[in-house]
Amino acid sequence: MKYVRIYKESGPMWGEVRGESVFCLAQAPYLGLVPTGESLPLGRCRLLAPVEPSKIVCVGKNYYDHAVEMGDGVPDHPILFMKGPNVLQDPEAPITAPDFVTRVDYEGELAVVIGKRAKNVKAQEARDYILGYTCFNDVTARTVQKEDGQWVRGKSMDTFGPCGPWVTDEVDPADLAITTRLNGQVVQQSRTSCFMHGVPALIEFISASMTLEPGDLIAT
What we know:
Blueprint: E1 2-6, E2 13-18, E3 21-25, E4 35-41, E5 47-48, E6 56-60, H1 64-70, E7 79-83, E8 88-89, E9 104-105, E10 108-114, E11 130-137, E12 140-141, H2 142-148, H3 152-155, E13 161-162, E14 167-168, E15 177-182, E16 185-191, H4 199-207, E17 217-219
Parallel strand pairs: 6-17, 8-13
Antiparallel strand pairs: 1-2, 1-5, 1-14, 2-3, 3-4, 6-7, 9-12, 10-11, 10-17, 15-16
């Protein structure tokens, strides 16, 4: 299934995508599928970020090559940091940065959307807690990150988390192509099979420390 959030004058609305149509839902899909009876052409819908998380948990250095590129060594366990919901931006909407930011980096990632409350979940049970997957750009003010010596400010500026266009459960997170384009040019390319820590292992590791709520986002 594929889920979207769309703009309506009455307020954002969730919908299920079937073919070229959006079938509107009365609430978020992780609260239960409740159709409103209304459908709209997908091509005429303005798509919003398809998530409403209480928190965005991000995993740093989950690709071996990226860890080597950063020059800080390869971690023996997932390195976590947080981004606030303020970073969320709609697909195709602009990223903006304060004037003092001199370098903005892209980081195209697979993101996991949690479907039900998860605490102390074992890896083998992790898929039962997943609503689906979406695309996420972990935008980073790199010079600010390096100046601060930690990641919060450089990662959490407004609009620094474009997301979407939809959430889907129709993919295998163990082996997906991840491609980032800048002005049409490919600037990053890899596969999720290159993860040091796969999605089930990440959910086990994260939920051992914090409760994941329905709608929460994990950027892998």
